Amino acid sequence: MTLLSAPGSAQCLPTAGSDSSGLESGRLLHPEELQLALRNRALPLEALRSERTPTGLHYTLTHYDIPFLDAATYRLAITGRVNRTLSLSLAELKRRPSHTMRVTLECAGDGRAFLQPRPISQPWLSGAVGTADWTGIPLQAVLDEAGVDDAACEVVFTGHDHGIEGRVEQDYQRSLSVQEVRRGEALLAWSMNGASLEPQHGFPLRLVVPGWYGMASVKWLGWIEVVDRPFEGYQQAAYRYSSSRSERGTPVSLMRVRSLLIPPGTPEFLTRTRIVHRGNHEIMGRAWSGRSTIDSVSVSADGGATWADADLEPPTSAHAWQAWRWVWSAETPGPHELCSRARDTAGQEQPVQPFWTARGMGNNAIQRVPVVVL
Ligand SMILES: Nc1nc2c(c(=O)[nH]1)N[C@H]1C(S)=C(S)[C@@H](COP(=O)(O)O)O[C@H]1N2
Ligand SMILES: [Mo]
């Protein structure tokens, strides 16, 4: 993979000197991208072993600063086109009937750093994904209590975090249409994997929208406003598929079909190239797709020249990834490239070539894992 410097870049870091790893210098990454990458971490791919990601290994993405909120004084406001404005404390929310859902969340920017040219933002490679058990109350229950007006069109969710993006000072805000909300799947969650939310995951309360890329699941939720016209906030306009930053494009919404595999064998420290010994190796991974189930997963050990079918496990939750397995008989010494390719029941399939958009969203191209057989 080549990390390119952007044309006209002011200040860049060489990603590596030339040493025994064989990496060349001159592959440039902005210090600002590195700073974002270090604040926002990915799932280590070996953690795909767990159906439910341990909280400390779940990816996180935070645009601005993590706000530190006090659970004792916290309140959630529900306002706008409702019959009754509500202001609820955490204790009041927790007194209502709760519900737990296993949900796979993925950042829409995952795979961005593989794109050429590389859109400048959080430079995800692979692994901005994780699956957790979220506990809370259905969003719909709270909206029913407030009574949504017939003129309502969208529901806007505002987080307590504040920052500047595209020269616009803003709170982190996203909306969902009233139809989307009426599906009844979104949760106002105070717990992740059986414990209170960690600060980075939205303590004390966040939205979790199953099937959607992560940006919809607003963390540190402070305010829910029912509005009578489409919300045009910054984060609504930024998450779009377009061929240039100025083109409006189409909204990013549900997670596109994708699969990842656990790189087998032993990693080299710097390059993470894998070494495996000759013989049979079980290759295991997971696959997911917005609102569809996975139909099949194929695996290749020769960079996509030939494919074999993996054994696919049925879903354990309507909103979580599915496990798959395949046995690789690694007989030929030398370099190989492992890839997996998922197809969903809606007929969508992962592309072999990266899906390029100006903001680097929804790149669900097949993963490529170099492995050397000894
Ligand atoms: N308030 C707020 N909510 C947010 C974000 C944010 O920066 N601020 N990031 C979004 C994005 S882009 C993603 S991918 C998910 C990440 O959730 P996680 O950090 O719990 O994995 O949170 C979403 N919710
Ligand atoms: Mo994201």
Structure description:
- The structure is a single chain.
- With 374 residues, this protein is mainly beta.
- Helices cover 9% and strands 35% of the residues.
- The protein has helices at residues 31-39, 90-94, 139-146, 178-182, 234-238; strands at residues 13-14, 28-29, 75-80, 86-89, 99-106, 129-138, 154-165, 168-177, 187-192, 195-196, 206-208, 221-227, 240-241, 250-251, 258-261, 266-267, 274-276, 279-288, 294-300, 308-309, 311-312, 322-330, 334-344, 369-373.
- The strands form 6 sheets. The chain has a 6-stranded mixed β-sheet with strand order 16-17-24-23-19-20, with no helix packed on it. A 5-stranded mixed β-sheet has the order 4-3-12-7-8. Strands 5, 6, 9, 10 and 11 form a 5-stranded antiparallel β-sheet that branches.
- Strand 16 and strand 17 form a beta hairpin.
- It is globular.
- The protein starts with 12 loop residues before the first strand and ends with a strand.
- 39% of the residues are buried.
- Molybdenum atom binds at residues 61, 107-109, 214-215.
- The ligand Nc1nc2c(c(=O)[nH]1)N[C@H]1C(S)=C(S)[C@@H](COP(=O)(O)O)O[C@H]1N2 is lined by residues 58-63, 105, 107, 159, 161, 172, 200-201, 214-215, 217-220.
